[in-house]
Amino acid sequence: MKIKSATFELSAPSLAACPRRPLPEFAFIGRSNVGKSSLINLLAEKRDLAKVSDLPGKTRLMNFFTFNATWRLVDLPGYGYAHVSKQERATFNEAVADFLTGRETLRHTYVLIDSRLPPQGIDVDFLAWLGDERVPFSLVFTKADKQSKSATHTAIDRFRQAALRDQPAEPTIFITSSKTKDGRGDLLQHIASLLD
């Protein structure tokens, strides 16, 4: 898939505030600071489409980006650590749950995992919730350039053991790096296949 255009559309605090025009949507979600914004910018081939921050929890709203004027990529707030109050955290997590389970135009969810870390309980719990809710998802392991290929594959195998044993089917797995552009073509090809 060739990306001809990628534009920010709007930010929404709730399911009711999401865009009305029906386009197929693909959600990106992961722990805070997992590299979502960098990966979105890589897919778009734009440096500043999604705002990159060193501060975990910067994304608090659901951010909608329109690609090729025909589909949307949705940047969902990171779960876990964030510089917000417990009340704010509960509110945006509720909005995310509503979106993932109730948005009719959502085609697929991509869960981003930092490839350098051992399996994190919050990721394991989130994937179990997605499985319980029957939300289709793939796994995107980020920051693969920061370690050797063998270390990345070892980390993925560990994650499979910790998080995917109870899933009805193993999700598609992508390995990405915003720095080396690894995984960009595979991700876009996957999205294209779901658009057909």
Kindly describe this structure.
This protein has 196 residues and is of the alpha/beta class. The protein has one domain: Rossmann fold (3-Layer(aba) Sandwich). Helices cover 34% and strands 21% of the residues. It has helices at 36-44, 86-102, 121-133, 149-163, 184-195; strands spanning 6-12, 25-30, 62-67, 71-75, 106-114, 137-142, 173-175. A 7-stranded mixed β-sheet has the order 1-3-4-2-5-6-7, with helices on both faces. The longest helix has 17 residues, at 86-102. The protein starts with 5 loop residues before the first strand and ends with a helix. The mean pLDDT is 88.
Briefly, what is this?
By secondary structure, this protein is α/β, with parallel strands linked by helices. It has five helices and seven strands, in the order E-E-H-E-E-H-E-H-E-H-E-H.
